[in-house]
Design goal:
The protein has 418 residues and is an alpha+beta fold. The protein folds into three domains: 129 residues, Histidine kinase-like ATPase, C-terminal domain (Heat Shock Protein 90, 2-Layer Sandwich); 101 residues, Gcn5-related N-acetyltransferase (GNAT) (Aminopeptidase, 3-Layer(aba) Sandwich), CATH 3.40.630.30; 152 residues, Aminopeptidase (3-Layer(aba) Sandwich). Helix content is 29%, strand content 29%. The strands form four sheets. It has a six-stranded mixed β-sheet with strand order 6-7-8-9-11-10, sandwiched between helices. α9 links the parallel β15 and β16. The relative contact order is 0.10.
């Protein structure tokens, strides 16, 4: 069922219940399970109830993304006090009206912001679908060597690959829960190439998904053959097939944040190293798919030496400029993506303001106190305001770890491992 309901309501508690009912009914009508519909409704209720009086009409839109549902909340102005969205502010807002924004942010699996035309602001709350737990089947013995080129698989083949990879704990988190992977691909959030043996059974796979503006992140490969030449041949064929599938797709480059030992390294360059909690580090790899035209990097003083040296090492044509402070004096907020199983959190800029450094340091302290052992932050150097978070991140113990080239704004990864 196509789902694209929209509504506009005034801000404040008086209309919050109406918005919640609208979102819940539309989600149920679109096939969402009750748990998911209730979470989306509560997000709408909390945001509407806590929205500032000067927000004007607040737009609500619900989109079915197969593996998740997205509630978009549109404001006609961007100069709003939405600091309550930041999790590190909990101690300051527990008794205040901003607790609604805090709860809404906590209920979402992913929260992002983007500017709208004429000075507006959109908040997007993604809530993932629940998939029943299943025990995956193990791959049969005697899988043969690759036969023919790796290709875009049908659903049955892709599901079988994911089941076998999950049973063998291969490929990483992307190769888990076959129904979710199928939904991600159907939505256009994941792409795959699979290698087959002579009996048309999967022997390996490589995934990629959007990362930043015009980049793709590779995941895998998951290889089901034992060590040896046949296994290496599968890895090479999968990467060749992925590159062929990205030709003329206006993709600027490929990034590999966690390269598996089987990932072919030829054609990739190392753009940094990420630390892990066990004291080890692994390289961050990048492969350009088109010529870099050059651009501007907005870099704060605390990071200028490292970014300048790395930019020169990678031979990037960048004008490195120091940004002005954000126009907004207070109200900064960061979003956090958590992976509790691996003890990892990644912080991103949500709303930049003059108190960004304090907010950044507060977020690092919050997740450190919660026991997260790998803390990362991702800054877009193409957006001047995001630089305001850098000083607080560095003061809290994060260090620049990798610079991922993007002519419209390089992506800077900062990291710390406890």
């Amino acid at each position: 069922m196509t789902l694209d309901p929209r509504a506009q309501l005034p801000p404040g508690p008086r209309h919050a219940g109406i918005g919640a009912g609208f979102v819940r009914d539309c989600a149920i009508a679109g096939g969402a399970e009750e748990r998911l519909a209730n979470r989306l409704a509560l997000i709408a209720e909390e945001v509407l109830g806590a929205a500032p009086a000067n927000a004007g009409l607040v737009g609500l839109a619900l989109a079915d993304r197969r593996h998740s549902m997205r509630l978009s909340v549109d404001f006609t102005a961007s100069d709003l006090d939405l600091a309550g969205l930041d999790q590190s502010r909990r101690g300051d807002i527990e008794e205040g009206e901003e607790i609604g924004l805090y709860l809404a942010a906590r209920l979402a699996d992913r929260l992002t912001t983007e500017p709208l035309d004429r000075g507006g602001l959109r908040l997007s709350f993604d809530v993932g679908r629940a998939y029943p737990a299943m025990t995956p089947d193990a791959a049969p013995a005697g899988l043969g060597p690759i036969s023919g080129p790796a290709a875009d698989p049908d659903d049955a083949t892709l599901a079988l690959l994911v089941q076998w990879a999950e049973a063998a704990e291969l490929g990483g988190p992307a190769f888990r829960t076959a129904p979710r992977v199928l939904d991600q691909r159907a939505q256009g959030d994941l792409f795959a190439r699979v290698a087959l043996d002579a009996r048309r059974r999967p022997v390996g796979g490589l995934f990629w998904h959007p990362f930043g503006r015009r980049l793709m992140e590779l995941a895998g490969p998951a290889l089901l053959l034992p060590e040896g030449e046949a296994r290496a041949a599968v890895a090479g064929a999968l990467l060749d097939a992925a590159l062929a599938g990205l030709v003329r797709k206006k993709i600027q480059g490929l990034v590999v944040l966690e390269p598996s030992p089987d990932m072919p390294r030829a054609g990739f360059e190392t753009v940094g190293h990420l630390p892990s909690a066990d004291g080890a580090t692994w390289p961050v790899l990048f492969r350009a798919l088109e010529e870099d035209p050059g651009g501007i990097s907005w870099v704060p003083a605390v990071l200028k030496d490292w970014v300048t040296a790395t930019t020169r090492r990678l031979a990037l044509g960048r004008d490195i400029e120091e940004p002005a402070r954000p126009k907004r004096a207070t109200g900064a907020a960061m979003a956090a993506e958590t992976d509790r199983a691996r003890g990892r959190v990644t912080l991103r800029s949500l709303i930049a303001a003059g108190d960004a450094a304090e907010v950044a340091a507060g977020n690092v302290a919050l997740f450190r106190d919660q026991g997260f052992s790998e803390i990362r932050a991702l800054l877009d150097l193409g957006k001047p305001d995001q630089a305001a978070f850098a000083e607080g991140l560095v003061q809290a113990g994060l260090a620049p770890a990798a610079l991922i080239p993007d002519a419209a704004g390089d992506l800077l990864l900062l990291a710390a491992a406890e």
